[in-house]
Amino acid sequence: MSTVVIPPTDRLVASPLLPDGFKVPASRFTHPSTRMRQLLDSEPFLFGPGVYDPMGAELVMYYGFKAVYFSGYSFAIGHLGTTDMDLYSNVEIADAARRTVSALRKFQLTMAVGDPEKRVAPKHLEIPPVIVDMDGGYGNIFNVQRTTELYVTAGVAAAHIEDQVLPKRCGHIGGKALIPVSEMIGKLRMARAVANDLGNDDFVIIARTDGLSAVDAPESLRHMDLAVERGLRYLDSGIPDMLWCEFPTSDRGAVETFSEQIKKRFPDAQFAFNWSSSFKWFKDPNPMTFAELGEMGVKFIFITLGAQHAEGHGLSVLLQAMSAEQQDGYIALQRREFEQGQDFPTRSHHFFSGVPYHHLVGKAYDAARLGREFVEALPEDRVV
Asked: Which domains does the chain have, with CATH numbers?
């Protein structure tokens, strides 16, 4: 792999897509995979909230998180309204990932101009690398070939592949079965070969095993022993940058055992960990912290369905309020959005979606009816 040098994060540079005088962080011009490796080298761990669409990713970026996790289960619910059992195709999730990466690059530009007319200062946001679920590769090695090409050319920083029989299912749904180790290694090899062929040697590959809770496998089922054996064999291939074992519960003992057994042979092994929404962490008297996981060698931590649960909760609260109180239910939401000291960038959907940027750049490029002179003078205390 190429040696990475971490650039100064406070360095601001011009972009041809910004009006004169506005700037963005220099990391905009660093490839997302390289950026992810820089962060893995410099941070005790990298945390990526799980999202399923561009807007969620933009919020993750706005609040300063250094990675975005594009969850397959979340995408299944958000895109099809169904569960995580391989019911969408590689092209569908790759296109959603492409739109998300593109949205983050645009969002950086729109935040970099702020809103001069309303005296909203520019925000110089770093673009977080996007890590995307590749499930079991959506088929054989040639499906992996196509998927990896789609991900790499979309600007995705990393992907994980799991060792389940297709059609796969969520790691916390019963009935999982495993493919042979040799087939899984073939998929990992293909993903690496495609990324290298496209000139992205830094593309981060995460190998996942479901051996701990699978019900069927080519080998004898030995649960923890099987998961460890598979993890070691995947690392023996020299391909994965990180190893992920899917755990059926939040039991810290299993996490410690797996990482300790792997590190006996690979002391520098790095792990990914699903701090899963499937577990009732609020009932755990001593839930694992991100810092503790980092000390075990976990370098990438994510909550797969964080955004989905947040939307389910927030939208349900609003709908319940409007059902009971009609317009007053929505007025209550606006009051919370505009409370003194709150920082909800979406309270002005015009600002969040980049209307000020479009007026500025539209004027510079002589686009029809774009420029501040076409904006109605409306009272700021009445209109967002």
From this structure: 22-304 (3.20.20.60), 354-384 (no CATH)
